[in-house]
Amino acid sequence: MGHMEIWINPACSKCRSAISLLDAEGADYTVRRYLEDVPSEDEIRAVLDRLGLEPWDITRTQEAAAKELGLKEWARDESARDQWVKALAQHPKLIQRPIITADDGTAVVGRSEETVRDALSR
């Protein structure tokens, strides 16, 4: 098992569960507190490529910032992709969590024990 990176918000219970599981499995990982160490637009694009997802797939649309931006009304297509990525970079709270980058260059959103184990098995 190689080195992993996990993006967390320490206040998030699902993030803490994911960390506990990584520790229990003896995983080698780096924690990124992405609200403090905010990812750039390029980093967000790279993670989306690894996840195989679009920016709207990892956006927390219930957050206050999402409502202020009117995200629910935004187009979800190629033409709007940059607008979504920019919003995630400017308002990192909107990023779904935890995101775990596995050793093989893929990534998962580790919101269940199952997905965290999936990352561990790669």
Automatic annotation (TrEMBL):
InterPro entries: Arsenate_reductase, Arsenate_reductase-like, Thioredoxin-like_sf
Signal sequence annotation: none
CDD domains from the UniProt entry: ArsC_ArsC
The UniProt record lists the keyword Lipid biosynthesis: no
Transmembrane regions: none
Protein keywords: Oxidoreductase
One Pfam family linked to the record: ArsC
Keyword Oxidoreductase assigned: yes
Family in the record: Belongs to the ArsC family.
Protein name listed in UniProt: Arsenate reductase family protein
Record organism: Streptomyces coacervatus
Biological classification of the source: Bacteria, Bacillati, Actinomycetota, Actinomycetes, Kitasatosporales
